[in-house]
Design a protein that fits this description.
The structure holds three protein chains of three kinds. Chain A contains ten helices and ten strands. Chain A is of the alpha/beta class. In chain A, helix 4 packs across helix 5. Chain B is 75% helix and 3% strand. Chain B has a two-stranded antiparallel sheet with strand order 1-2. In chain B, helix 2 runs parallel beside helix 4. Chain B is globular. Chain C is built from 16 helices and two strands. The longest helix of chain C is centred in the middle third of the chain and has 29 residues. Chain C is globular and about 55 Å long. In chain C, 53% of the residues are buried. Classes of the chains: A alpha/beta, B mainly alpha, C mainly alpha. Chains in contact: A-C, B-C. The interface between B and C is large, with 50 and 47 residues.
Chain lengths: 256, 289, 320
């Protein structure tokens, strides 16, 4: 069941084509990784899918409905949630209030009381209950990333897009984040992760999309795309790509 | 109105525009670099005007001779004000900084009104007018325009060529990075604010030769500074120049067609429209690049 | 501060103001009217400036518009209270339309836009002589009963407006709208992402901030019997109101009430004694407020004040 479709979307900034004629589909319940070198347009793509930017051309469909012209708060209310690379809490509110805000508005709860109850559930789910009454600005980076996740979950999302959720975390924090993401997937949420860390991509993703200069250059399983020559070229450049492919095929030939 | 009349109005506008550019450039600099809207700007112009008037009236000192001294005095005033007062709120939200500078302005305004009274003073130089091909330009305005352009030009050179100027640009672009490069950001802020008040004071001297000096005009000049910054773009000499000349021309024509009272309204309306449509102004330059 | 304590303090204050005809001189009663009036204005400003955090300097635009709509209506024969209702509706509609446009601006640009609106309106009203009497101003029908009776009537009117705006503030503070506005104030983009309809909420806050300024303006016009563009669209008023709110504590329920009371009483003490320097004193009050009372009076604590003094005495930190 396709849940989110990007249909030939493009986005220009003045003369720059940030995203060019891009099409892909997300199936319900899958975990997809979005990778690509810096500047490839990964965050721009997420912005296009969540209403932060409007596509210059093309369509975005969510559960069959055309949502190309949606505004960010509409995307949130529909169940299209996303986190940010640079976390954006409400600094002077407590952790609980932050999540309650997301539940109240994005999660369309009826009252502040109901939203607070939902918030507590999500704090429990993400392991933030001990920090519930701390000001969001007082959290560590790892704590803030968890807060972002808790806020997203409080909106009862159907699709969750995680933008470099592991940036700045140490090894054990990353493992914790991975466990949490798997738990979220178990709840049936479709997940799109933007990632630089291949270990995360390999262990989480069922499918990988590779972006380069705003275009989709490869799509497939993790193992397939690491061998894809266009992907290697995108990351390593043409000269090294050729050498690398040569050495790998020679190595494979040598090993039989 | 015939072609000659249009040309005269246009020339009037350009001459006015040069004066306006000088008026706005210090304000634009402070706003662009410190991100502070200096509500004192209009009052400092008038203060410069009053000092000029009394130097001329009581001691017979010609305004243009008094100009350097007044400029230095105003620079010092601005530098100290920034260092002692404004520096403490420089990174606070708009409401705080605007209200603070407004409060300081109230104090200055009140003291000037009490000390000098609001009676308009004029430095009458009786220079007559020149007539170039049928276009009349009063000499005092021409002189004012010349000095306005010289001052503005000097500021442009300082910003582009001098070490201090480049440091100010650096701070404008990224104060954290500038600090890491060894620039004493607080000192740059004080220098910038000082330059802002210097230009305001100098404008006051020039304006004293052309317009009456009275505290009633402080709000008007401040308003014009806003409008020029929005029209021309913030934080650059080019922006102040473009904005000043555009406003000058608009006011000149609006005054011709609608009367002087409505000339100001047109300026403000244009500002409002631009704020909504293109707040970075006609030059779109966001800083000293 | 405990909610019930806030309500009790407010009720006590209202009683103090409303009872002035029983124990005070005519001067005191007039002062009470002014306090009630400004409290309503400050509570109104609090919606956009306190809750939503947008530095609006538009109060005079709404007050002035209300006063002129009210005056023109009354002169056309419309009964006084109906004229006030018209002024309220007209000002509200104007604010909604204006808000949809200028609330897209942020920070300084919004602040300047909001002041420019005051100036433009003043200039337009001054110029539209046929409708507004231009710079000569407008006279309104005089209310019979003599000045003392009239003042007591308007004490009632302004006190009612003060209570109404307070009740709306209480409601907003506890509602979804208030929560959303606080989110907008702390991080507008995050609020958008969290599902808050930021445009709608900002326009609502702006409209609420204007509605009763219109009513107050119209009532003020009826009270004084004469209005002119300079007094109706006064820059001093448009600055004073946010300052009063900052003094008391923006974004709170009692802050605007406290701030207006403190400011007005202070002003009366100094104004009465130092007529020539009243602007300078206002300026000094503002400077002290900014340095020593960053959270307003409600945010006052021993720590804040000593920190403020310490800041003043030591050299400023390097700016980063």
């Amino acid at each position: 069941m396709t849940i989110l479709v990007a249909e030939r979307i493009s986005r220009n900034f003045g003369g720059i084509r940030a995203i060019e004629d891009l099409s892909f589909a997300l199936k319900e319940g899958e975990i997809v990784a979005l990778i690509g070198p810096n500047g490839a347009g990964k965050t721009t793509l997420v912005n296009l899918l969540t209403g932060v930017l409007r596509p210059s051309s093309g369509h975005v469909r969510f559960q069959g409905v055309d949502v190309t012209a949606q505004r960010p708060f509409e995307a949130a209310r529909r169940g299209l949630a996303r986190t940010f690379q640079i976390v954006q809490p409400f600094p002077r509110m407590t952790v609980l209030e932050n999540v309650a805000a997301a539940a109240l508005f994005g999660g369309k709860q009826d009252s502040v009381a109901a939203a607070t109850a939902v918030a507590r559930e999500q704090l429990e789910f993400t392991g933030l209950t001990p920090l519930a009454d701390k000001a969001a600005s007082a959290l560590t980076l790892a704590g803030r990333k968890r807060l972002e996740l808790a806020k997203s979950m409080a909106m009862n999302p159907k699709v969750l897009m995680l933008d470099e959720v592991n940036a700045g975390l140490n090894a054990s924090e990353i493992d914790g984040a991975l466990t949490l993401i798997r738990k979220i997937a178990e709840r049936g949420v479709t997940i799109l992760v933007i990632e630089h860390l291949m270990k995360v991509v390999m262990s989480l993703a069922q499918r990988v999309l590779v972006l380069h200069h705003g275009q989709l250059i490869a799509e497939g399983s993790a193992h397939e795309i690491v061998r894809n020559p266009r992907v290697i070229e995108a990351y390593l450049g043409e000269k090294f790509a050729r050498r690398f492919t040569l050495e790998t095929t020679n190595g494979e030939a040598a090993n039989g | 109105m015939n072609a000659m009349g249009y040309l005269q109005t246009l020339v009037n506008g350009i001459v006015l525009g040069a004066l306006y550019a000088c008026l706005a450039v210090g304000f634009s600099l402070v706003w662009g670099v410190l991100n502070i809207v200096n509500m004192l700007h209009g009052s400092i112009i008038i203060l410069g005007g009053y000092i000029t008037y009394f130097a001329w009236h009581s001691y017979g000192i010609h305004p243009l001779l008094a100009l350097p001294a007044i400029a230095v005095l105003m620079y010092g005033l601005g530098y100290l004000t920034q260092l002692l007062v404004i520096n403490r709120v420089v990174h606070q939200p708009v409401l705080t900084t605007m209200t603070l500078t407004f409060g300081l302005d109230l104090i200055l305004y009140n003291f000037m009104t009490v000390y000098y009274t609001a009676t308009p003073r004029r430095v009458t130089l009786d220079l007559g007018a020149t007539n170039i091909g049928g276009i009349a330009i009063p000499f005092d305005r021409l002189l004012g325009m010349a000095f306005a352009l010289v001052l503005t030009g000097m500021l442009y050179l300082v910003m582009r060529r001098s070490r201090v100027g480049r440091a100010i640009v650096a701070v404008r672009m990224d104060s954290a990075a500038a600090a890491l490069m060894g620039i004493k950001v607080n000192r740059i802020y004080a220098i910038t604010f000082g330059i802002g008040t210097l230009m305001a004071g100098a404008t006051g001297v020039i304006f004293a030769m052309v317009y009456p000096v009275t505290t009633n005009l402080t709000g008007t000049y401040l308003g014009k500074a806003f409008v020029i910054c929005v029209i021309g773009g913030l934080g650059s000499v080019q922006g102040a120049l473009v904005g000043g000349i555009v406003l000058g021309i608009i006011e000149s024509f609006a005054g011709q067609f609608f009367g002087p009272l409505h000339a100001m309204t047109v300026g403000f309306l244009l500002m409002l429209v631009l704020l909504v449509v293109k707040p970075t102004g006609l030059t779109g330059i966001k800083g000293y690049e | 501060m405990d909610r019930r304590l806030q309500y009790i303090l407010f009720a006590v204050w209202v009683l103090a103001l409303a009872s002035t005809p029983l124990w005070g001189s005519n001067y005191v009663v007039r002062l009470a009217v002014v306090i009630a009036m400004f409290t309503a204005l400050t509570l109104s400003w609090n919606f956009i400036g306190g809750f939503a955090g947008y530095p609006s300097f538009s109060t005079a635009a709404f007050f002035g518009l209300g006063s002129y709509v009210g005056a023109i209506s009354e002169r056309a024969g419309i009964p006084m209270v109906v004229a006030w209702g018209l002024a309220t509706l007209f000002t509200g509609a104007f604010a909604a339309a204006l808000g949809a446009i200028i609330l897209r601006l942020k920070g300084h640009y919004f602040a300047i836009g909001s002041i420019a609106v005051v100036e433009v309106m003043r200039l337009i009203i001054s110029g539209w002589g046929s409708l507004t009497g231009g710079g000569d101003g407008l006279n309104l029908p005089i209310i019979s009963g003599g000045p003392n009776v009239v003042t007591r009537i308007f004490l009632l009117v302004m006190t009612i407006l003060m209570i109404v705006t307070f009740l709306i503030t209480v409601y907003v503070d506890r509602s979804r709208l208030g929560f959303g506005l606080r989110c907008i104030q702390q991080n507008e983009d995050a609020a958008n992402m969290a599902g808050v309809n930021i445009t709608l909420y900002k326009v609502i806050a702006y409209t609420l901030s204007a509605l009763f300024c219109g009513t107050v303006g119209a009532a003020y016009a009826s009270w004084t019997g004469y209005i002119d563009p300079t007094d109706s669209f006064s820059i001093i008023m448009t600055i004073k109101v946010p300052v009063m709110c900052l003094l008391g504590g923006p974004g709170t329920v009692l802050g605007p009430v406290l701030g207006t009371a403190a400011f007005t009483l202070l002003e009366e003490v100094f104004w009465a004694n130092f007529l020539d320097y009243n602007r300078a004193i206002l300026g000094v009050v503002i400077v002290i407020l900014i340095f020593f009372l960053p959270g307003g009076l409600l945010g006052l604590s021993y720590r804040n004040v000593t920190a403020g003094i310490a800041k003043l005495l030591r050299r400023p930190k390097a700016a980063t």
